[in-house]
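Render this sequence as a predicted structure.
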Amino acid sequence: MSRDETIADADLDIPTTRRVAYDGFRPLALHTVKIPRSGGGDVEQERLLFEIGDVVAILPFDPIRNKLVLMRQFRLGAHLTGGGGDMIEIPAGLVDDGEDVEATARRELQEETHLEAHSLRRAFDFVPSPGFIAERGHLYFAEVDATELPQESGLEAESEVIRPFLADPDEALAALDAGLLHNGYTAIALLWFARHRKELTKGA
């Protein structure tokens, strides 16, 4: 007989030990935890995780043009795991120490597209790959005026080459359905957009 469960992630009071295995571009740490069994006793786990922290992602939308703002950026991880390294993405970046997540959303949007958010709506938080990466994503929806959208952007200090562009929402969702988009943040943002599109675009 099946047992009904509350469909929600839950917190567990589990102590952990941590040792830095490699301190490079992103810290890699070895964590040891004891997971309680429902019938009593514990299971000990050792896991190496890259510790990323909080990341903010923004799905920009120009309501006058009825267009999403997407961008292309090369990602080595995708390139090495089957191709498609020149990925379709949305603006995103790390939350700086002491920075508010909404402030990060406005900053990353401006840095990567040179656009300002006329309004920001927080969508939801998610963890993109909890088995290997300690990272929490915060998704925002932003209304923008894309009149001054540049052909190329990105911070030289971070060796970024970013190419923003306007995308028809129907075409973006069709590309996702056709399996042409593989970036997790982009897919999550577009799926959320599809569920809330009528409200977000005033029926456009």
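Summary. The first helix runs from residue 76 to 80. The two ends are 47 Å apart (CA to CA).
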